[in-house]
User: Fold this.
Amino acid sequence: MALYLIVLVYCVLPSTLCYDNAFEAMDYLMRYGYLAPPDPHTGNLASYADYEKAIVDFQSMAGLEATGVMNNSTLEMMNRPRCGVSDKMGTNRFSHRKRRYALQGSKWFSQNLTYHIANYTHRLQKDTIEEHIHIAIQMWTEFANITFSKVNSTTADIVFVFANRTHNDGYPFDGEGGVLAHAFFPERGGDVHFDDSEKWIVGTASQGIDLLFTAAHELGHSLGLSHSDNINSIMAPIYRASISRQHQLHPDDMRAIQSLYGSRGFDIGTTTPYEHGTSEGHYDICMDPVIDGVTTTQDLSTYFYKGDFYWRFVIGKRLWQMVGYPKRIDSSWNEVEGAIDSVYTTHNGSTFFFKGDRYWEYVNRRFIANGSIADKFVGLPSNIDAIFTWSGNGKTYAIKGSRYYMIQENWHVAAGYPKDMSIWQGLPYARIDAAIGFGGNTRTYFFSGGDYYRFNDRLLQVTFGSAKFT
Ligand SMILES: [Ca+2]
Ligand SMILES: [Ca+2]
Ligand SMILES: [Zn+2]
Ligand SMILES: [Zn+2]
Assistant:
């Protein structure tokens, strides 16, 4: 395979470039998402057309003339310091669109975030680092409806770390130059890592990498932005000393952040952002959090259902909401007819939707079966309010009004049920809309009229009562 690789590299590149550079270019294009890596089974590399397209895309992203031909200015641009995050995350890039921002596809559910600075580079004073990270945060919060508070805990939403080389996340740094920093998108926790081998500077120092600018760029990723192909924006991937001195968002960055979190007083104006899918409904689940049902499917996506619509969330350090929702329930679970009564997912990964006297069974979005509740769940009434598996004993319970039912392995209601809801102390009586287990299977969340109640399955009590769902 190694021989094949070398031969192919020679074939696809103009002979004026030396081998080392050609190999480096291929590596760069793969590393930053422009070119697919070799097929692990066959060793086959991308075609010449793919390679040419990759060069065009990179040149376009870097603000060069997009010729598709490797040349010295392209190589020079590849050797500049840059962010370590891939240039092709999330959105439909380079499709003859206007140069502008891109969204990765995830955002924070809460608009009030916390951050923590885990350690400091020896090149700058501790106070200086704190101050400049604070300013980088303000560059975003000035324009978007989000807030940050500093905490002294590694459980903060966004943790800033200075690290050298390998640092336990699978993305080792590379010494001085090259990659300056990287950050994780909201769905991966939002943390920011700076390469401690860089000569970090602030203010007017001339030689080095501007910490404030780099922090602001990485925070863009932490908040859900991908790289912009507008080379004057903060979110452009390649470091430019001239831009790094501006210390304010470009209008492209402002539009990006406002499209995710809304504006704070000053609205830069709306342009349709590129993102996964399109939302079809008009509900905002955060503003009106009365829900019909909630479940985490076998692929670990969490869905909230309300009326004909659903929202997708992922449970990380916090509950974070995917961009592009709500969508119609029947656009993903085609057989389900409109608003549901309740839903749950079994230990085996089967998701059951309930509505009236009917149920529908799926694995993720793959339809398995449907039928009458009375036939399969013998003893269970129609129109149930909520159904969930309780981590306290691994059993499944359904709730209707003031009564609850235990469902056995054979789907039948256990003898002795229904029982009265009063045993679930601290919950609103006969007003449960939906329920689900979260939190490493030690907590069950009950939703009622826009509030949720967190039931500690070990202590058998409500530990967090009647807080707003948001
Ligand atoms: Ca580096
Ligand atoms: Ca319900
Ligand atoms: Zn970046
Ligand atoms: Zn890292």
About this structure: Residues 407 and 413 are 5 Å apart (CA to CA). The radius of gyration is 26 Å. The pocket of zinc ion (ligand 4) is lined by residues 163, 167, 169, 171, 182, 193 (CB under 6 Å). Confidence is low (pLDDT under 50) at residues 1-19, 265-282, 465-470.
